[in-house]
Amino acid sequence: MNITANYTAFIKKQAADLGFDQCGIARAVQLDDDARRLETWLNKGMHGTMHYMENNFDKRIDPRKLVDNAQSVITLLLNYYPEEQQNPEAPKISKYAYGNDYHEVIKAKLKVLLLRMQETFGEVNGRGFVDSAPVLERSWAQRSGLGWLGKNGNLIHKQSGSFFFIATLITDLALEYDSPVGDHCGTCTRCLDACPTDALVEPGVVDGSRCISYFTIELKELLIPENMQDRFENWMFGCDICQDVCPWNKFSRPNKTIEFTPIPAILNFSTKDWEALTEEEFKKIFRHSPLKRSKYDGIRRNLRLKGI
């Protein structure tokens, strides 16, 4: 086994030891096709008020602008599918937000992975990213052989479904690269048919400005367009509809990450409990939760929607 193969095997073993469910690696190159798709998506205004999506366009499509002399993009998947479900009568919360904020959890794991690489290989330059940086993580996951992009825009893994977080570690280390896998959605259109706001405008294209997750998390205005207010199907934070109906998610299994253990209030609160919640209680109960992204006023706004 040559040194590149040794490095690759070491990284994948360390990723597994840190609790990541999958690890794939792709060569760091400019994503020309993705650049064209992103430009079209932005020009059509499908990012709504998410103006940060317009920033750092060159960095989004070329990892070599994020890490000097980048050679490889390591993509890691971490399952978040919960063992327990919410009170079915309560306002719905996306499953990714049941436990602690994944940014904190995954960033810590990426730091350890990079440190172990540096301790073993010597001088290695790299940066880890989780969702909040200019990285097209789903494209890299696809290039790394970790799945295909479904018609709902989510990465789908053939053995695990789509309920997982995607993390990226860009490094100047040359490694062995994985090959992409084929698309296995076939003629299925369950996700397209199920979206109540028609956010899935065509297979693989999500109009972010129409998505329930956008309205309940990203949109900061206290008024939601009236023509959307009765379409939320009881979702208060995020939305899992297009994943819940996906046949590939019959393979989803409960995660093993202790930090993703559901916050009791998320499982047990009734609508009345949410309505009675004070701002002080919200900040205390959800201080480590993704729900803090919507803030207390956002949650109160979402509770007033006709569809909840």
TrEMBL record:
Sequence positions that bind cob(II)alamin: R60, D131, N152, L155, I166, S213, C239, D240
Record: residues binding [4Fe-4S] cluster 2: C195, C211, C239, C242
This protein's UniProt keywords: 4Fe-4S, Cobalamin, Cobalt, Cytoplasm, Iron, Iron-sulfur, Metal-binding, Oxidoreductase, Queuosine biosynthesis, tRNA processing
Binding site for tRNA: K220
List of catalytic residues: D131
Transmembrane segments: none
Entry EC number(s): 1.17.99.6
Family recorded in the similarity comment: Belongs to the QueG family.
Function description: Catalyzes the conversion of epoxyqueuosine (oQ) to queuosine (Q), which is a hypermodified base found in the wobble positions of tRNA(Asp), tRNA(Asn), tRNA(His) and tRNA(Tyr).
Oligomeric and partner information: Monomer.
Record's protein name: Epoxyqueuosine reductase
Lineage: Bacteria, Pseudomonadati, Bacteroidota, Chitinophagia, Chitinophagales
